[in-house]
Amino acid sequence: MGGVEVTAGEGVAVPIGETYPEIRDGVRTLCQDFPGEYWRALDRERAYPTDFVRALTEAGYLAALIPEEYGGSGLPISAAGAVLEEIHQAGCNGAACHAQMYTMGTVLKHGSEAQKQQYLPSIASGELRLQAFAVTEPTTGSDTTNLRTTAVRDGNGYRVNGQKVWISRTEHSDLMVLLARTTSREEVASRRQGLSVFLVDMRSAVGEGLTIRPIRTMINHATTELFFDDLHIPADTLIGEEGRGFDYILDGMNAERILISWESLGDARFFIDRASAYASEREVFGGPIGKNQGVQFPIARAWAQLQAAEMMVRKAAALFEAGKPCGPEANTAKLLASEASWAAAEACLQTHGGFGFAEEYDIERKYREARLYQIAPISTNMILAYIGHKVLGMPRSY
Predict the structure, then answer these.
(1) Which of 74, 104, 307, 394 could make an SS bond with 68 (beta carbons 3.0 to 4.6 A apart)?
(2) Are 153 and 196 in contact (CB under 8 A)?
(3) Letter string b/e over residues 162-185, b meaning 16 or more CB atoms within 10 A of that residue's CB
(4) Fold of domain 130-246
(5) Which residues neighbour 83 within 8 Å (Cβ) at sequence distance 6 or greater?
(6) Tell me: the pLDDT tens digits for 92-106?
(7) Given this model, what pLDDT does residue 250 score?
C-alpha cells in the first residue's frame, strides 16, 4: 500500500502516507476526462453522470470490493476509499455510484451462494447496477426500527406496501436493497427484530406496484421517493434470515460511513488546494490576499482538521479490514471528515469572495455537495448521540 504504519490497538496497523499509488494515479487520469464543465452541465440539468459511471465501471473501480471469484478485484475497503477520495479531490462526485461499493456487502455477507452467483458477477461487470438502498421513510427518518413499510408473506413471495424517501439513484439502478417489516412490532420482543432485507429487481417492479417520484434538491443527487402498493416480490429475494434485517443493515453501515468519510477527505483537499492557490495568486491592495492572517488562518485550520480526520478514517478502515468492532471509529470518522470538509468549503468560498459564487470556478457546486454529509447518510447529531450513549455510557437520547 505504501507508507509507514502505526497501531490502532489489538495489533491492528494503520498506514501513514500515500496508499495505493497506482490506483490513485489511475483515478486521477480517468477524472481528467471529466472536467468542471462536464459536471456543471449535469448540475444545471440535474442529469445523471452516465458516462462517468460507465468509465469507472469499465476501469474496474466500482468492483473493487467484490471478491475475485465473483468477477471483482477483492480489494480492502481502504482501496475503495482511495478511489472515492481521488474522485472528489479532482472535483468530480462519487455519490452517483458509491452505493454499489457498500450495498453489495449485504449480498456478499448475508446472501445465499445462489444469490451471490446470480448477481455479483453481473454487478462487477456493470451488466447490472446495484445503486439503491431503501431504508429511510418520511415518518420515521433515522428511527429505523419504527419503519412502517411491510412485506407480508403471500404464497410464493411477499406483498410490499409502504413508502420510502431520500432513496437516491433508483432511476439509474437495476437492483435495490430494501428493508421492510415482516413481523409486526407487537409480535417481537425487541424493536430490532422482525425487519427483513430483500434484493428487489426494479426492472420488473416499476409499474407493477412500485412508483418512483424524483425529488429536486439543492444538489444533483438523483434522489427519489418510493411508493409500494401491493408490490409482489419472489421469496428468493429475501437476503439471509427473515427478521434479522436490521442487524444486516447495521453491518453495512460501518462500511458506508468509512467510504463516505473518504469522499469528504477528497472534498476537503479540493477546497484547500483551490483556496491556498487563489490566496497566493489573487492580489488586492498591492499584495496577495494570502499574506493576510484573516484569509490564511481559516485555510490553515481546515488543513489541520483534515489531517486529524484522515487519521481517524484510516483507523476505522484498519479495524474494519481486520474484522474488529469499529462502530465508534466509523461514526467518528464520518463526523470529523464531514466537518473538515465543511470547514474547508467555508474557507474556500470566503477566500474566493464573489468569484466563489460563479459557476465556472466549481466552488459553489462543490460547496453545496459537501454540505450534504453533515446530514446524510447519518446526521452529525445522531453521531454525537451515539457516542454519548454507546461510547460514554450516558443516558440514551434517541
Answers:
(1) 74
(2) no
(3) bbbbbbbbbbbbbbbbbbbbbbee
(4) Butyryl-CoA Dehydrogenase, subunit A; domain 2 (2.40.110)
(5) 23, 27, 56, 61, 64, 94
(6) 999 999 998 988 899
(7) 87
Task: Return the closest-CA partner of residue 133 out of 195, 67, 36, 200.
Answer: 200
CATH fold of 4-125, please? Butyryl-Coa Dehydrogenase, subunit A; domain 1 (1.10.540)
Task: Kindly report the length of the chain.
Answer: 398
Give the Cα separation of 125 and 141 in Å (integer). Answer: 34
Residue listed under C-alpha cell 443527487: 221
| Contact present, 167 and 149 (Cβ < 8 Å) | no
251 band by pLDDT with thresholds 50, 70 and 90? confident
CB-CB contact of 194 with 187 (8 Å) = yes
Look at residue 395 and give its three-state secondary structure.
coil
Element (H, E) at 157: strand 157-168
Transcribe 316-331 into DSSP letters: HHHHHHTT---HHHHH
CB-CB contact of 129 with 103 (8 Å): no
The answer to whether the pTM exceeds 0.90 is: yes
Q: Find residue 159's DSSP bridge partners.
A: 152, 232
